[in-house]
Amino acid sequence: MVTVKICGLRDPDMVAFAAREGADWIGFNFVPQSPRYVTPEAAATLMLRLGKAVPVALMADPDDALVMQIARLGFPVLQLHGQETPERAKEIKSLTGRDIWKAFGVRERSDLGQIGTFPDIDGLLVDAKAPDGAAFGGGHGQAFDWSILKGWSAPKPWLLAGGLTPDNVAEALRQTGAPGVDVSSGVERIRGLKDRELVRAFIRAAKGRPDQP
Ligand SMILES: O=C(O)c1ccccc1NCC(=O)[C@H](O)[C@H](O)COP(=O)(O)O
């Protein structure tokens, strides 16, 4: 079964709703410039509503103090979404003992080359490259050309991300064979605010049960 990560939740009831609807992972965003940012204190409250969903902490170029603070909250997975080097990813892994997922922004086939230089990560996201001039590297609601993944085999467990929506996720999965998907903007009507109907539709479309009430 395809796994689903819903990223950038800020509201406890929405966390509980996404978990009930079958989200496998729920991402909390610790990038202060993001409209989806939550403080570590707020995340601790949100984490009380996870049900069976697994929390993922999203950070961009975090310092040691932040990674330790987040790891202490109990996150089993840290998702790195900045300019972290392979060495820094390894360092964060040893410092915290947590699984490390690294997000890679891609636009063309050659962008996939960087992935092999991160031997110590536990998983990865293949995401769209941020638009030129963007202040941060993800959550822009833009898809990349999925055909660049044709014939590529991921060295680690991976999620497809970037511009996915309830309407295109089934086709994205068909074209890429991704084992899992990650979404943020595509389940929002207002930037930064998740929408229940879209969250439900996305999870059902990704898991291949779109018509169930
Ligand atoms: O979502 C953000 O605001 C964000 C900010 C800074 C770094 C990363 C961010 N999001 C990372 C994610 O994992 C998103 O879910 C992923 O980029 C897909 O986003 P979208 O295209 O909006 O579905």
From TrEMBL:
Q: Name one GO biological process term.
A: L-tryptophan biosynthetic process
SUPFAM superfamilies recorded for this chain? Ribulose-phoshate binding barrel
Pfam families per record: PRAI
Q: Which UniProt keywords apply?
A: Amino-acid biosynthesis, Aromatic amino acid biosynthesis, Isomerase, Tryptophan biosynthesis
Question: Per the record's keyword annotation, is Isomerase included, yes or no?
Answer: yes
Q: Which reaction does it catalyse?
A: N-(5-phospho-beta-D-ribosyl)anthranilate = 1-(2-carboxyphenylamino)-1-deoxy-D-ribulose 5-phosphate
User: CDD domains from the entry?
Assistant: PRAI (cd00405)
In which domain of life is the source organism classified? Bacteria
Q: Which Gene3D superfamilies match?
A: Aldolase class I
Q: What is its EC number?
A: 5.3.1.24
Enzyme class, top EC level, equals: isomerase
Pathway recorded for this protein: Amino-acid biosynthesis; L-tryptophan biosynthesis; L-tryptophan from chorismate: step 3/5
Domain (N-(5'phosphoribosyl) anthranilate isomerase (PRAI)) spans 4-204
A single MF term (Gene Ontology): phosphoribosylanthranilate isomerase activity
Q: Which HAMAP family match?
A: PRAI
Entry similarity comment: Belongs to the TrpF family.
Q: Which NCBIfam families match?
A: PRK01222.1-1 (NF002295)
- Protein name from the UniProt record: N-(5'-phosphoribosyl)anthranilate isomerase
Q: Which gene encodes it?
A: trpF
